[in-house]
Amino acid sequence: MNSPIPESNPIVYNPCGYDTKCYQALLDDNGRPLFDADLLWGIRMDPDAYAELLWPWSVDDDDFVAGPDKWRALSRQWDRWKDFREWQLHGRRRKPGFEEYLGTYKRDLLMTAKGRESVASPSFEEDARKRWEREYHDCGEAEEDVERHTEDVRSWLPQGFVPRRPLKLLPDPKAQDQWTTFVEYLAFEEFTLFPLARTAREQEEAREWGYEKHKAIADQQQGRVDWVVV
Q1: How many CB atoms lie under 10 A from the CB of residue 84?
Q2: Mapped to the 3 state alphabet, what secondary structure does 160-197 carry?
Q3: Which of 25, 60, 127, 208 has the greatest number of C-beta atoms within 10 Å?
Q4: Which backbone phi and psi does 174 adopt, to 5 degrees?
Q5: Residue 114 CB-density burial (10 A; 0-12 exposed, 13-18 middle, 19+ buried)
Q6: Residue 129, in any domain of the structure
Q7: Is residue 64 part of a domain?
Q8: Position 27 in a domain
Q9: Closest-CA residue to 61 (of 47, 48, 78, 44)
Q10: Is the pTM of this model over 0.85?
Q11: Cα 68 from chain centre
């Protein structure tokens, strides 16, 4: 008598799975997600109903076209937060130790199936070390300078924004409290806004083709600045 063929357990695809991980990653890294993960399914089904909420994160930075994935604001926010974390280190001229870098790099890769394959590779740590050296080669032997970066951050804060207490950045940005981190994040977004707004103004004055696109990009960036302030 033949043995019955065991039923396979199909892998159920969760279209919100990665964004749920991004939500948790933001919380774990002292960030502030745009909305609660419980809203993901409703937003995915009807993103237009949440258009005002999603606006600052409705499209990718490098491809300003609103498409079917405009609901994926949390993954875009997480990508942006990682850019901010790198900006913090470079601003301080702080080169993270390899073990610190490796932990962060591995965390990001383990969030996706393709990334998990990379982590399992025998050459993973060797490849990660090369990546670490490449990304932070410009730090060289320069000494960390958090004081200079603090002055830069103050100068980049939006006009009219008055911190409710003195701003004191720490050499290790992850040791800061959330308020200090978000003031620094506000400066990061304002720093990004300035050249975008300038490009849009120059194109408008020259009546150049593509002005509307650059104006929309600058407007979305302004939305991110406004969201942080609120």
Answers
A1: 19
A2: CCCCCCCCCCCCCHHHCCHHHHHHHHHHHHHHHHHHHH
A3: 25
A4: -80, -5
A5: exposed
A6: no
A7: yes
A8: yes
A9: 78
A10: no
A11: 20
